[in-house]
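Example (one chain per record):
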Amino acid sequence: MQYTKNLNLKKPDQNDYVNIADINENMDVLDESVQKKYEKPTTGISKTDLSQPVQDSLQKADNAATQTELTKTNEAVATHMAEDATNAKKGHVQLVDNVDGNSASLVPTQNAVKIGIRKGLEQIDYRVTKSGKDTNGVFTSVEYRRKSDNTLAVKSVLSGGSSPKYTTRTLTYYGVDGITVEDTTTRTLSYDADGDLISEV
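Predicted structure:
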């Protein structure tokens, strides 16, 4: 008995009896082999199974597609960076340290907003109330209330040092409701040899 090289099919010698079981076994092997040869692959063909020219062509196509996508991405980024924000759409803005102007693409910083609020409060007509009078006749607390609705706008409190030469003034700025604190700033007070206030920074 001999066998084929690839499928190991049985090949009876000249003096062997023909065995039907051997023939059937050979047929089963052939049937399975042919089926595998022509059935549709489920995982695709590996790139390494292709010829080198085909692999080279596919690589060139991949490179071209990658370059095209990169170009499109760069163009999209450049377009996006050039778009300024408006009242109608999103976009890029530039921070500025002031509240002047009405540009939709220039946005004031938090510090600028605080300064703007402070300036606005300083321009309002106030009713002044003093309290906390010390032994030297200095009022340590002063409230500035809006005459329109009597809500608290600014409160000034003296502290530090000793009367009458306090060293610190704390200013608290309130929102339109007179309750919400919008900003707080602390100023250092300096005096001359005669005890007169000469600076407040």
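Caption: Residues 52-81 form the longest helix (30 residues).
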